Amino acid sequence: MKSLLPLFLAAAAFAADAPKLPAIPADSIAKKGELLFADDFSGAHDKRWVRVVDTFKVADGALLGTQTRVKDVLAKDGKTVAIKAHAAVYGLEVPNKDSVVECRIKLDGASMVDVELDDRKYTAAHYGHICRAQVRYDAKTKKGSVVIIDERDGGMKNETRAMLQDPARKAEAQKFLVGRSATFPADVKVGEWQTLVVEIVDDQIRVVLDGKAVGYLKSSGIAHATKTRYEFGVAGQSGQIDDLKIYNATAK
C-alpha cells in the first residue's frame, strides 16, 4: 500500500497557500443618511438612468436585464474582436462617496446580478471602474456566491490589466490581485425575489442577502472619493431589480 503522506503534505501546503476569507462584520458598518435616489419602476422613467450595454427594460413593475452580447463578434478580418461579449449594464448618475444600496433582486435564468461603482473621470483604471459586489449562481453546481471586488487597485488598474493581457506576464500579475477580491458562499434562490443590501464605507464593502451578512472586503481602491456612477449588471438571461434605494452613508 502506498503511503498517503505525500497527499497529506500536498493538501496541507495547498491549505496554507489558499487565501483566507476576511471575517464578515455581524453588524452594519454604515449609518444611512439622506435618501439620494429611489425607483420602484412603477412610474415615469427617471432621466438619471443611462443606457450602457443592452438590454434592459421595465417589465411587470421591475427592471429586467438580459445579456444580449453573449459572444465575441469578430471584425471582417476574422481574427480581431470587434465587439466583446458583455453583461447587460444600466447606469445611474448619483455622485457621492459612501453609500448604502438597497434593492430586491431575482435571478431567473441570470448567472449574475451586480452593483458597481465607477468614476468615469478616473483614468488610472479601465473605464473608471472602482468596485463592485456581485450575486452569482452557477447552474452546473447549483451553488450561489457573493463576490466583492476592488477594481481600482485590482484587475482594472491600468498597469495590472496590461499585465493580465500579456501571456508572458499574466502569472506575475496575480500578486497584484491578492486581497483585491473575496468570494463567499451564499444562498441564492433561483426564481425568487431576495433582498440585497450593499454598504460602501471608506475602504470597506459589506453585503447582506435576505437579512444575513454574506460578504465583506476591505481594500484601498474602495475608498475612492469621487464615485459618480452606479451601474447594475446582469449576466445571462433574465435578472430583475426592483425597489431600488440609494442612501448617503457615514461610518458607524
In the CATH hierarchy, the architecture is: Sandwich
The figure for the number of domains is 1
Largest sheet: 8 strands, antiparallel
Tell me the name of the CATH homologous superfamily. Exo-inulinase, domain 1
Q: What fraction, in percent, of the residue positions are helical?
A: under 10%
Low-confidence stretches: 1-18
Strand content: over 45%
Molecular shape: globular
Arithmetic mean of pLDDT:
92
What structural class do helix, strand and pairing data support?
mainly beta
Radius of gyration: 19 Å
Could you tell me the CATH topology label. Answer: Jelly Rolls
Number of helices: 3
Walkthrough of the structure:
The structure is a single chain. With 252 residues, the chain is mainly β. It has a single domain (29-251), classed as Exo-inulinase, domain 1 (Jelly Rolls). It contains three helices and 17 strands. The strands form three sheets. Strands 1, 3, 4, 8, 13, 14, 15 and 17 form an eight-stranded antiparallel β-sheet that branches. The protein has a seven-stranded antiparallel β-sheet with strand order 2-7-16-9-10-11-12, with no helix packed on it. A two-stranded antiparallel sheet has the order 5-6. A hairpin with a 2-residue loop joins strand 14 and strand 15 (212-218). The longest helix has 13 residues, at 5-17. It starts with a helix and ends with a strand.
